[in-house]
Amino acid sequence: MFHLIKRDVILQKKQLLIFIPFILFFIFMDVHPVLTFLVASVFIPFNTYAYDEKAETNILLNSLPYTRKEIIASRYLGAIFYMSIAIVLTSAALFVFGKLFSLSDIAIGSGLFLLFAACTFPLFYILKPGYITTAVIIGFIVLSAMGPPVVLYLAEQFSGITDFIMNLSIPIVYTGSTVLIMLIYLLSWGLSTAIYQRKVF
Amino acid sequence: MQITISNHSKEPIYEQITTQIKSLILTGELAEGAALPSIRKLAKDLQISVITTKRAYEELEKAGFIYSIVGKGSFVAEQNLEVMREKKLKVIEEQLGAVVTNGKELGLSFDELQQLLKFLYEE
Amino acid sequence: MEHVIEFKGVSKRFKDFSVQNLDLQVKKGFVTGFIGENGAGKSTTIKMIMNLLKPDSGEVKIFGLDYRTHEKEIKERIGFVYDANVFFPGLNLKDIKRIVAPAYKRWDDRLFYQYIEQFGLPLNKAIKTFSKGMQMKASLAIALSHHAELIIMDEPTAGLDPVFRRELLGTLQELMIDGNRTIFFSTHMTTDLDRIADYIAFIQNGRLVFQQSIHEVAENYALVKGSLDLLDRDTEKAFIHIQRTAAGFEALTDRIDEVKLIFGDAVVIEPASLEDIMFYLKGGVAHVSFN
C-alpha cells in the first residue's frame, strides 16, 4: 500500500518541479500563511485525482493485487503524508524568505485542508470521471467565497454557541477542532470506501 | 523426430501425427524405449495446439505404440513390434490376394494391376 | 485444481444487456479462446474474472479461490492484457515498472528486461507515443514479468497487422511449454485461435453457447452444401441455419451423422471454421436473391 502512495511521486515527477515556484509565488504575494499552507497541501493529493479521473487508472489499480480498501486507504493516508511534506517545505520556504508564520497558521491550514479533503474525496468516487476537476474547482471557489460569510452568519444566529466557544480556552478549542476534523476525515474515509466497494468499472 | 503436417489436408492434424509416428516406429527409425518430445514442445515446434499433440499421443498410447510416465514423458513402447509388423504384413498379403482374384475376374493383366497400384501409391 | 477459472450460474444485468447463467470452465495448462461478436458479453465476462465487476448471482472461482477472501492472492497470479492501454500514458516504461513492480511479490526484473528487449520496446519514451502494437507488447511484457499462472487477454490482436499477430501467437506458444500456465484469450479474430487454441468458449447474447475442445468442435459441426431441391421441411431440421442462394444452399449442422444418412453423397460436407460457426449460429444473413 505504501507503494500506492509512492506512485503519486512517480506520476507527478514533472508537476513537482512546478511545486516550489508555485509556493514561492504565493509567498511573494504576501498571502496569508494559512492560505499558503492550504494551497501547498492541496497540490499533490488533488493532482492525483486528475489521473484517477480516467477509467483506465481504476481498471489498472483494480487489476493489480490491491484491494479496494487499500486503494482508498492510500488516498486518505497519502493526503496526510503529502500534506505534512508540503507544510515542512512551505515552512522552510517561508523561513528562508523571512516571512512570519506561526504554529497556529500551520494548524489552521492543515485543519482546513483535511476538512476540504474530507468533503471532496467522496465526491470523486460518486461523480463520473470528467466532472471531477470541475467539481473541485467549483467546490474550492464556493468554499472560499461563501465559507466566511456563512460562518459569520451562523455565528450570529447561534450566538449562544459562539459565546460558549469563545469562552473556552485556546487549547480546548484546538483539541476540540482537531478531534472534530479527525472524526470528519475518518467518516469521509469510511464513506469513500463504501462507495468504492460498490463501484463497477 | 521429424514430423510434417499439412493444415489443408482432409485428415485431422492429430491423425497425421499419429500416422507418422506409427510408421517411424514400425520402420525402426524410432527405437524401442526412445523418448518422444514432450507434447508441449512438439506443439510449439509444429505450431499447433497442445491439445492436438496430446490427442495424438493419447491415440498412440491406446494403440500400444507408446507409453507415458507422468513427470518423465512419453517413450516408444518396448513390445511386439515384430508381431505387429507381421500382422500388418499378413493383412496386406490377404488384401493383395483379393485384388489379384478380382483383377483376374475382370481380365486385367499383371501390368494393368501394377499401373493401378502405382497410381494409388503416388496419390 | 483442474479449472483455473470457474463460473457457476453467473448472471449480471445491465440496463439494456445481461449475461445469463454462465457456467464457464477454463482448464489449467491450456489455451482457451473466448469468441463472440461485439456486444455478446465478452468484456463483461472478463471484468468478472478480474473482479472489476461483481456478478448479481452465481459463483466466481479463480484458482479455486473466492475473491471475497483471497483477492490479493488471486490477482498476484494473473497477468492481464486489455484491448486499450491502461497504463499511465504520460509515463515511460521505466516509471510504469516502478509503479507496477512493487505491487507483485513475484516480480522478476530479469524477465521484464528480457521481454522489453525481445519485443524491441524503448524504456524512455512515453507510452502514449507507442503504436497500438507496441502498447500491446508493453502490456504483455508487464503481464509476463511476475510469473503469472493465468494470462487474461481481451482482444489483444485487434487492430494489429498479420505479421505481428503471428509473432504474438509464437510468443504465446512458447509460453505454453510450461504446463502450469493457462491463457484465456478473448477475440473476434477467430483465425488467431486456429493456430493456438485448445478449447473454445462461444458466447452469444450473454449466454454461453458452447465450450468444447477444438476437436469436439470439429467433430460436432460441419458445413453442408448442396442443391436447393434437396431441402424440404423435414430435411431442413438437420441444420442449424441455412443460407440459400440461386446456386444452391449452404448450411451449418451439428448433426453430421444424420446429414450423412439423409443426403449421402448428394451434398458436400466440409469442416466448419469458427467463423462459419459464429456466422451461422447468429442466423446468417437475410435471404439474398440473385434472380
TrEMBL record, chain A:
Q: Which residues belong to the signal peptide in this entry?
A: none
InterPro entries the UniProt entry points to: ABC2_memb-like
Origin, by domain of life?
Bacteria
Q: What residues form the membrane-spanning segments?
A: 16-44, 76-97, 106-125, 131-155, 167-191
Q: Which residues form a coiled coil?
A: none
Which keywords does this chain's UniProt record carry? Membrane, Transmembrane, Transmembrane helix
Q: Which PANTHER family match?
A: MEMBRANE PROTEIN (PTHR41309:SF2), MEMBRANE PROTEIN-RELATED (PTHR41309)
Q: Identify this protein by name.
A: ABC-2 transporter permease
Automatic annotation (TrEMBL), chain B:
Q: Which GO terms describe its molecular function?
A: DNA binding; DNA-binding transcription factor activity
Question: Which PROSITE patterns does its entry note?
Answer: HTH_GNTR
Keywords, sorted A to Z: DNA-binding, Transcription, Transcription regulation
Pfam families listed in its UniProt record = GntR
Q: Which residues form the HTH gntR-type domain?
A: 11-79
Which top-level group of life is the source organism from?
A: Bacteria
Q: What is this protein called?
A: GntR family transcriptional regulator
